[in-house]
Each structure stands twice: as structure tokens, then as C-alpha cells.
Amino acid sequence: MGLEEFFSHLRNLGIPVSRNGFEDYLTDESRFRGRARALIRARDKAQVVAAVNAARVNRVRLNVVSGKTSLTGSSVPMGGVILDVRSLDAIDRSDPSRVEPGVITKHYRDHVGRLGLFFPPDPTSEDSCTLGGNVACNASGALSYFYGPTRQYVRGLTVALATGSVISIDRGQVTGVHDRLTIPRHLLTPQPDADLVVPVPRHAGPSWERCKNSAGLYANDPMDLVDLFIGSEGILGVFLEVRTILLPRRNPYVALLIHPPSRDVTVALVHLLDALKEWSVCRDHNAKENVERRLRVFSTGAPQVGPESYDAVVPACMEWMGASVTPLLAAERARPLKDSYGCLYVEQEYRPDLDPLTVIAQWADLVNMVSRFTENRIHTEVALDEKQIRQMRQERKSIPERLNQMIRPGLVKIGLDFAVPKERLGWLMELYDRVLPSRGSYSFGHIGNAHLHVNLVPETEDEEQAYRKIYRSVAREVCAVGGTVSAEHGIGKLKHEALEMMLGPEGMSEIAQVKRIFDPACILNVGNMVVMQCD
Length: 535
Ligand SMILES: Cc1cc2nc3c(=O)[nH]c(=O)nc-3n(C[C@H](O)[C@H](O)[C@H](O)COP(=O)(O)OP(=O)(O)OC[C@H]3O[C@@H](n4cnc5c(N)ncnc54)[C@H](O)[C@@H]3O)c2cc1C
Fold this sequence. Notes:
The protein is α+β, with helices and mostly antiparallel strands. It contains 14 helices and 20 strands. It has helices at residues 3-12, 45-58, 105-114, 131-137, 144-147, 225-229, 263-281, 285-296, 326-330, 356-374, 386-405, 425-435, 461-480, 496-518, and strands at residues 17-18, 38-41, 62-65, 81-84, 98-99, 117-118, 154-160, 166-170, 180-183, 188-189, 196-199, 238-244, 247-248, 253-258, 315-322, 342-349, 380-383, 414-416, 441-446, 451-456. The strands form five sheets. A seven-stranded antiparallel beta sheet has the order 17-14-16-15-19-20-18, sandwiched between helices. The model has no long low-confidence stretch (mean pLDDT 94). Residues 28-29, 64-71, 74-75, 85, 101, 123-125, 129-130, 132-134, 136-137, 139-141, 233-234, 238-239, 400-401, 488-489, 525, 528 line the site of flavin-adenine dinucleotide.
């Protein structure tokens, strides 16, 4: 039992193992560096299952890697062997909802788009990340504000477990009763001697309805087994197939860039737009009253118009580019941003039979109302055709890459991926304005979800240490108001301390308990999400 037996077992099965030349697998986009003894590039599902089984028998650790765009070290090995699953990239010809996990997200979205379908999850990294990585991290993107995260678009999964079995489950097949999930043995191939009984964690982070969240294992009541795997950062099994939920083709849309002059106006505008979105989904009395309340904020004494005047205004995304990132954008396309607090990017869909200008007219009225209130014209740009929209969206998309290019060798950027319940958006932005350094701090992200990425890019080691302290103290405050320490990128190998702040030691040990059931030999993605004692 050991590494050499593992290698010889794989050789006998014709699975190639590289024992050197895998330097670029020792890090991911977080720049955290690990170590490994070898690399396996699995060519198909059978090779993945064989590698997981051989690793279990020989007690060899495997770290699964796919697009390698993780920002938390989750795809970085900490010893053992790297299992690259990117070559599993087939899409079923007759049923495009059946897809292998190595497919690049953008390729998949384009593929189903050509078939007249729509897969909403659109992480900024979609050009290089994969569906398997997205499911493992419950990735989200700009459109998740309206459409929700990856979780909402996964119907079923086939997973190679480190118990020696493969499971193929769809939603509704295994659901939890009394805080536990019982997986009948007949769903596992080969069948074990007994059913698998999994306790559902009690100390989980906030629910998506309350606050955007991707930290720790998911828990709900009732609980679906498919949901337990989504966002599990590969610690419970290796995905072999993802069965997605596809929507009909997305309606056409226009894009707008709005430049509010201050923090208060930004927050009030985001709350108003969010209230309009909620009202479009649920035209009830409470939703209408909420819009009226948000409209009153901008009251200037002039006769107040009602929510009906803006009933076509429904943002499909609300993205933020703080004034700190303006210089980065200016290189791409010079824009008069200097008098604004930042820049709000929104997309507005419209029915194909409607003239987009009628929708834009309502946006213009709304922005004029805000301008009257601030006594300053609010600069706004509109993109109507595909080329203009792509250019505008690209500006927002280019920010993380540009920030990564600014990191000095030997240093790491400290990424705040915090979100808070939506009503706390103003609190979060005020906190950031107060505690973040004026130099080296860049703020952007998903403002509609009260989720802002702040990148602290240090110039010296001392600065890096100072930024780590800021990270910890903000994490504590965010947890205290019911927010999350990771709304998007997960925990990986770098954010255990923050996760423990959020879930407490009980929550961490619940995660370890679930992991032990799916991975008794403790071989899969060790170090992700939780540090645990392995026998
Ligand atoms: C510039 C940039 C922008 C980003 N923007 C976003 C964003 O908008 N939204 C967002 O959510 N994230 C974003 N990210 C983070 C990252 O892209 C996501 O977490 C993404 O889901 C990772 O996918 P990947 O294929 O690169 O996975 P990897 O980095 O290879 O792996 C990530 C995790 O998934 C596990 N995994 C991968 N494949 C499998 C599998 N088949 N079975 C089981 N586990 C598996 C790995 O073991 C690891 O734990 C961004 C990253 C960068 C660098």
C-alpha cells in the first residue's frame, strides 16, 4: 500500500502518470503554492473512477483540478497526486443538458445558445473556468443577481465517491428528513453493504434568499443530496457528469453605465432598482409599497410619480466599478468618471416585439429624477447594439485580470469576497470607505447582491500583513451582521479562519463529519474548506 503501488496499478490500467513537468499545476489564480508527487491527466470517466479507487486503496491523496482559475487555492495540491479532469469535456449530442465537467463554461453557454437555449451562470472567468469547477464552487456571475447561482441550474450529477462507488442522482431522488440524508445502497455502484447516512450540517452560512453565499457546505430543510455536492469544493467526490437546467433563449437586452455622485445616492439607487426588480417578479401590495418607499428617497417636492411609471425597469444585473478602479478602465476606454463615486453597470432585457427605446425612456426618466434630487446631471451611457454592449461588459470583466497583473512577485493580493444581507449594503460601503486604505485598494463587484469584491494589492510584505489584519477585522464585522465571508469563491485552503468565524468550531466539525462519510480514507482535496485529522 503506497505511492509506488498506486503508480504501478495505474500503469497496469494504461493510465499515464507524469512524475515531473507539472510545475504550473502547483498554483492557481490565488498564487498560493503547493506541492505534488505526480500528475494524472484523466482521459475519460473510467480513468477518473479507476484513479479514485486506486488512491483510496493505496491511501494516496488526490487533488482534483480543472480550469485552475480558483482564487482560494482549492485546486492547489498539498502533497499527493494531481488529478486533472479537464479532458472530460463532451456534451451529449442528443441532450445538451448532459455534459461532462471539463467543458469550459463559455463554450457551453455558446453551444446551448446556438441551440436556442440559455445557461445563465456567467462567472467573469467563464472563458477559462469549467462547469465542474463551477459546480464545485457554486459559481455565480453578473447575471446571478436576477437568475441565481450555478446551484439553480444543476438538475443532477454523477459523482465518483472515495468510498469506492459511483452515484448518479437527480434532484428529488434523495431528500433529507430529520436533519439527515439517507442514500439507499441501491443508488451506489458497486453497492456497499449498507445505506450511507449523512448528517445535514446545522451550522451553515446564510441562505441565498437572505444573503448571497458560497462558504461551507450547503444546508437546507428539506435538503436535497444534489445540493450537498454543489459548492462542496471537491471534498465529497469527483463529478463525472453534470445535468443542467437550461432556459429558453434570453431576451434581447440593452446595457447602461450610470455614474452616481455619492455613496448615499448609489445605495438608494440600487435599493430602488432592486425594489423594481422584486415588484416585476411579484406584483403584490408589499412589493409595490417597497418601490414607493424607495422612490420617496428621491422626492424633491415635485409631484411624485408612482411605481407604474417605471414598470419596464427591471435590471438583470447590477455591477459596480468603484472610483478606485477608474484608472484601470480609462486605459480601455476614456470616460468622464472623475466626479462620480463609481459606476453602476446594468443590463435591461426587453421583449423581442418591443422597441428598446421605450424601455430606455423609462430609465432616462428615472435617472432624471435622481439628477433633480442631487441637483447634478448624472452622467449615463447607453449601449444598444451587440458590439457596444460587449465592449461595456468587457470593461467590468477585465478588472480582476488587470488587478492580478498588478501583483508584485512574491506578494499576494488579499481578496475580500464578503456579502451582506441586501438591506446592509449602505453599512458595508460605509465600512469599506472608513477602513480600507486609500491606496492599493480596489472595489468592484455585484452590488445588486450587496456583494463587493475588494482587492487589496500590497507593494511590500508589511503592507500585505497589514491588509491581512484588515481582512480579519472586516470578516468579523460582516459575520456579526449575518453576512458571509465568501459569496462566490469558496474557502479553499486559504480562508478556514474566516469560515470558522462564520460557522464556529461546531460548524467546522460538522463539515469534517460529512467528509468522513463520503471519504473515509481522507484522500480527496484534503485541506479544502476544513482542516481535519485524517487517520
Ligand atoms: C479573473 C477571475 C475572475 C473570476 N470571476 C468569478 C466570478 O465571477 N464568479 C465566481 O463564482 N468565481 C469567479 N472566479 C473564481 C473561479 O473562476 C471559480 O471558482 C470557478 O468556478 C473555478 O472553476 P475551475 O474550472 O477553474 O476550477 P478549478 O480552479 O480547477 O477548481 C476549483 C475547485 O473545484 C474543484 N473541482 C474542479 N472540477 C471538479 C470536478 N469535476 N469534480 C469535483 N471537484 C472539482 C477543484 O478540486 C477545486 O476545489 C474568478 C477567477 C478569476 C481568476
